[in-house]
Amino acid sequence: MQSALLAIGTVVAASILLAGPAPAQQPRSEVSCGSKGSAASVEAAIADCTAAIESGKLPSQSLPLAYNNRGIAYADKGDLDHALSDYGTAIRLDPKLAIAYCNRGLVYANKGDLDRAIADFGDAVRLDPNFALAFTARGNAYFDKRDYERSLADYSEAIRVESKLAIAYHNRGLVYRERREADRAIADYSEAIRLDPMYRDAFYNRGLAYRGKGDLEQALADYSETIRLDPNFAVALGSRASIFDEKRDYVGALADLDRALAIQPDHAANRNLRGHVYYATGDFDRALADLTEAVRLDPESAAALTNRGLVFESKGDYARAMLDFEEASRLAPGDALVWNSRCWAQAVVGQDLQQALADCNESLRLAPDVADTLDSRAFVYLKLGELDKSFADYNDALRLNPKLISSLYGRGIAKMRKGESSSANADIAAAKALRPTVAEEFAVYGIR
Question: Is residue 336 a contact partner of residue 367, using CB atoms and an 8 Å limit?
Fold first, then answer.
């Protein structure tokens, strides 16, 4: 979590560093050392505050504030050690200066020292029980420690103290998201948006919540509003592209992904998604290039490895496909898709059908009643000559997806081998009507 810092003065908009879902946020305000306006730059702020401190003319009650505000400037510059020193001096000069405790806590949080941060935020709210932003900051530290109960309590207290604090609603929504309370999360994001209609990350995170509920249209609307507010938000472009992909709007998906990757070329997830979209459109060479880059950027991405394996498989390179599927299954042993992909590749190669069968069984254990996996296992049984089991699995696959072409054709072959030629011919004809090349495809797989 990136933390901005508080000064004495008016609270303005927050800035955050986004990675995946927008994280809990800290507020920010102007730097001033008692002058009539804020300094034009960080270096100017440091110079102004230093001049004020060294002048010997500041009233005793103003000197701690000057150290506090110079600490803010140092923190903005990234010089956290000098910031800590100035906050410490401010606190020594005025042990009741709540804002200095809060700002020092934010620096500790940025340095990853969450326990010290929480202690300083605690002192800030002890000194000022109505310090809503300090409650929010402590809530963020608890959030980073995954102590969601305390985090929730602090955000709720911030809202009780200051009912129009959009950041507190947004960050409480993140806690509800972690607790899988999607409706409460959406309600809090919506309130944050009502209070601040330009709140980019509230729109984005509400989109994620709607996506989690399967409401693609609402998610799409929120992602689009996020991108309107920030056209260079690469993560949101990727999220919207994933919905376009699911809706099979590959033109829209590629447009968003091209923009996202132009902004952030090393974003592994977006690179993986674009590779998947290229694969879906049959552009295997571009798919392979993107997926290879995604694996280079994130060697432990089981999704990218699986997708690249599928491309190798489609290009007829089953040996390289198997290597990717094996590595993906090691990285994500709970991913049913990986085991099904491995099963299918093994079955097509036909070298170890018992292992292929084991892989399909593991996939179905993880995700029962998946038509594609039943189709894969039926194909394995067909190659093993276990026609009744093959027939049963093809039937189950077609019950789940009546237009699954490979199951229609495979069931026809199983019926033909069982001597049920009339019914077999009907299945084969139905499959060919949907895809005229299906017989040639099965011939490549070793089934005629």
Answer: yes
